[in-house]
Design goal:
Layout (H helix, E strand, L loop, with lengths): L2 H39 L11 H5 L5 E2 L3 E2 H20 L3 H29 L4 H23 L6
């Protein structure tokens, strides 16, 4: 096997990490977009697994800066992560470098919002927990790409 063949195989493995990150971000975008639309339309969100969606989504923590839904900020973050991961899959190193701090910020926000649900609001929103799971998985994928891809491709 030639050096070029090895580099192509390693590049393909690196691209798989980027594609998985893009798919996760797309799922997160769908979740956050749904919550944003429901919030802006004033509809009540139905929780099927846990109760407490309304308590969480109508709390003072569900909006920032003049009534902007936190879910809208999440949708923007997921859209940006999707865009960067897609660009990274096509070999844009700058996009890959920007994805790391974005996902780190998203993860920190996730930890904060789960804390708020558990200890301040004392209620859980299944859609928010889904977003937390997606962001955690996205964080693990981005971290995994950095740890398990050869340095010249990371």
């Amino acid at each position: 096997m030639s050096t070029a063949d090895i580099e192509r195989a390693e590049s393909g493995r690196g691209r798989v990490w980027d594609v998985v990150a893009a798919v996760l971000a797309l799922v997160g975008l769908a979740d956050a977009s749904y919550l944003t639309a429901e919030h802006l339309s004033g509809n009540s969100v139905r929780c099927m697994i846990v109760s407490g969606c309304d308590e969480v989504l109508q709390s003072s923590y569900s909006t920032v800066a003049g009534g902007v839904p936190v879910a809208a900020l999440g949708a923007l973050a997921y859209f940006t992560a999707f865009s960067l991961a897609t660009l990274a899959a096509y070999g844009y190193e700058g996009a890959r470098r920007l994805l790391v701090p974005l996902v780190a910020l998203m993860f920190l926000a996730t930890v904060w919002f789960v804390y708020l649900q558990a200890f301040v609001i004392k209620a859980y929103c299944v859609y928010c927990l889904l977003s937390a799971a997606i962001t955690t998985a996205l964080t693990l994928v981005v971290l995994g790409r950095r740890l398990f891809t050869p340095k010249r491709l990371a």
